[in-house]
């Protein structure tokens, strides 16, 4: 792994990056740090997926560390200000301040770590991104792949159909009519939790 400092963020990259990958990660981090949208492009084969994943996940880790620091400094400030000598009273004040801090009324931006959603046009592109993620230092990050009925419906009758439109229609009918035991089982398990 190569550790890079880009815009003040420590980015782990699986190998020594090319200049175009460093440029790409710099632009990604600039957008994230400034809460800006970005439209970035790079030719095929230049490592866009890997660069995007490493930069954004490094930024998220950095953001988590900053949020934790903000929380700790907020707790320390409240304890210092409330030092009445009565431990119960101090704890009550601290809990009240923390609940205020967790609401929108007091710097909620300071305590917010955004989730990263990686979207792609095709399922194979998502599969590629998951494989790229496994090659990085960020491979322990929790991730979920969300796909279409065509990709994820496991009902045998639906899978036998050849057209996507027919699969979608039959899947919807089975779910709406409560005739899909796979869906019903998941729904039942979800409600029990």
From TrEMBL:
Any one GO BP annotation for this protein: regulation of double-strand break repair via homologous recombination
Keywords in alphabetical order: ATP-binding, Helicase, Hydrolase, Nucleotide-binding
UniProt-recorded Gene Ontology molecular function terms: ATP binding; DNA binding; DNA helicase activity; DNA polymerase binding; hydrolase activity, acting on acid anhydrides, in phosphorus-containing anhydrides
Organism: Elysia marginata
One GO location term (cellular component): nucleus
Domain Helicase ATP-binding residues, every copy: 7-193
Protein name, per record: Regulator of telomere elongation helicase 1 homolog
Alphabetized PANTHER family for the sequence: DNA REPAIR DEAD HELICASE RAD3/XP-D SUBFAMILY MEMBER, REGULATOR OF TELOMERE ELONGATION HELICASE 1
InterPro entries: DinG/Rad3-like, Helic_SF1/SF2_ATP-bd_DinG/Rad3, Helicase-like_DEXD_c2, P-loop_NTPase, RAD3-like_helicase_DEAD
Chain ranges passing through the membrane: none
Pfam families for this protein: DEAD_2
PROSITE patterns per UniProt: HELICASE_ATP_BIND_2
Keyword Transport: no
């Amino acid at each position: 792994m190569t550790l890079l400092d880009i815009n003040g963020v420590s980015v782990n990259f699986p190998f020594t990056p090319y200049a175009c990958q460093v440029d790409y990660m710099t632009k990604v981090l600039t957008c994230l740090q400034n809460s800006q949208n970005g439209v970035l492009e790079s030719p095929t084969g230049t490592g866009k997926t890997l660069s995007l994943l490493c930069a954004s996940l490094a930024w998220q880790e950095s953001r988590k560390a900053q949020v934790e620091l903000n929380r700790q400094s907020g707790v320390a400030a409240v304890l210092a200000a409330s030092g009445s000598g009565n431990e119960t009273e101090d704890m009550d004040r601290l809990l009240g301040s923390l609940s205020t801090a967790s609401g929108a009324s007091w710097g909620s931006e300071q305590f917010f770590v955004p989730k990263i959603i990686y979207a792609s046009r095709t399922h194979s592109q998502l599969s590629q991104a998951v494989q790229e993620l496994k090659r990085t230092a960020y491979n322990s990050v929790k991730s979920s792949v969300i796909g279409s009925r065509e990709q994820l419906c496991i009902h045998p009758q639906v899978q036998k159909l050849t057209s996507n439109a027919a699969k979608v229609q039959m899947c919807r009918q089975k779910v709406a009519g409560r005739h899909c035991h796979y869906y019903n089982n998941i729904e039942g398990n979800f409600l029990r939790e």
